Amino acid sequence: MKRDSRFHIAVIPGDGIGPEIVAACLQVLDILQERLGGIGLDYRKLEGGAGFYQKTGTAFSDESMAVCKKADAVLLGAFGLPEVRYPDGTEISTQFDLRVEMDLYAGLRPIRSYPGLPRVLADKRAALIDLVIVREQSEGLFYSRGRGTVEEDQLAWETMKVSRHGSRRISEFAFRIASRRAKSRRRTGKVTCVDKANVLSSMAFFRKVFAEVSAKHPEIKSEYAYVDAMAMNLVKTPWDFDVLVTENAFGGILSDLAAGVVGSLGLAPSADIGEKHAVFQPAHGSAPYMAGQGVANPVAQILSAALMLDWLADQHGEPRLAHGARILERAVEKALTVVCPIEFRGQDGTAAITKAIMTQIRKV
User: Fold this and answer.
1) pLDDT mean across residues, the chain
2) Residues 6+ apart with CB under 8 A from 261
3) What average pLDDT does this structure show over 249-265?
């Protein structure tokens, strides 16, 4: 239990549309605090990302990393500029640096449909889409980031790492999420292990460890799917799924696919969670071609803040924060019956969507 009701949030707006959607999110959080009976959020803004790398030669300073570690939570915007890259050709991705430094092993990617928006899928059951992709983030294929090699400009090597420790803790995390969702009656409680165990020994090992964890949770249904078949089924019958747990690279691909099925990455929040620290960020990129035009959709950023409030509520035993998360989620849902983001062929940009959400916060 935290001794006081003030929470210190490190905020890194980042690149492209990042500063715009972060500003919108902080406006919304300031209105929300009026409803939370003494809860306070204190922000410490930090620089980082591709633009910062251009200016300084580093994507994120050691001093800023220390601030993030001391903060109660970290709220990110978006990172990356296509023309700004490291010498090996990879993009500047400050969020990856935070994941490694803080051991943020669990990537949480909720995906749901909103009845007020146009549907991508014609099937009426598309209105029932409500799933979570749980992505292992400490190893898998992305473990090779910064470790890959190119031999004489003829051959490139990357290494996939899958450990018992990493597979066990991400599987346990997925079952905890499924249990919570079942208790809240959002879903019945099911975890699907997504792998490529028919081809890769590392994935067969991941499945084996998942099965061991599953046996400890008989109250939660479990099943298995190959990642290629899952990609198809997320398009054909996404309403059938509850919690999917998978390897790092697979999870990144399936998260974007699933967001496309509900219409936009602009609706997709994310959380990167470890034992002591957590970072919250929209799942979409920095979209520099949209920057400064006022057209960016801030919903994913705002829903990421709702995930942050939920996590802080758990960490500090503060139910008012969880109540705030529910207010934010309901406000977004109701606002999306009034406004329509531009990516859904609507006319509403950042300011209009933000205003609509703030209006609903005062009502719900």
Assistant:
1) 94
2) 111, 120, 121, 126, 129, 234, 235, 238
3) 96
CA dihedral 84, 86, 88, 90 (to 10 degrees): -60
**Distance, CA of 322 to chain centre:** 18
Distance CA 362, CA 364 (A): 6
Whole-prediction pTM value?
A: 0.94
Query: Residue 81 in contact with residue 51, Cβ under 8 Å?
Result: yes
In the DSSP assignment, the letter for residue 286 is -
How many angstroms from the chain centroid is the CA of residue 170?
15
Burial letters 96-123, b for 16+ CB under 10 A, else e: bbbbeebebbbbbbbbbbbeebebbbee
β-bridge mates for residue 348, sequence order: 341
CA dihedral 42, 49, 52, 277 (to 10 degrees): 40
SS3 call for 351: helix
Residue 252 sits at the vertex; the CA angle it makes with 124 and 219, to the nearest 5 degrees, is 65
- Rounded CA gap, 78 and 14, in Å? 5
150 torsion bin: left (phi>0), alpha (psi -120 to 50), beta (else):
beta
Q: In what order do the strands lie in the sheet with 269-273?
A: 40-45, 6-14, 73-78, 278-282, 269-273, 106-112, 130-136, 243-246, 190-195, 221-226
For residues 90 and 284, the model is more confident at 284
With contact defined as beta carbons under 8 Å apart, do 356 and 326 qualify? no
Q: Is 342 exposed, middle or buried (0-12, 13-18, 19+ CB in 10 A)?
A: buried
Question: Do 26 and 59 meet the contact criterion of CB atoms below 8 Å apart?
Answer: no
Compute CA 258 distance to the chain's CA centroid, rounded to the nearest angstrom.
13
Backbone angles phi, psi at 81, to 5 degrees: -135, 125
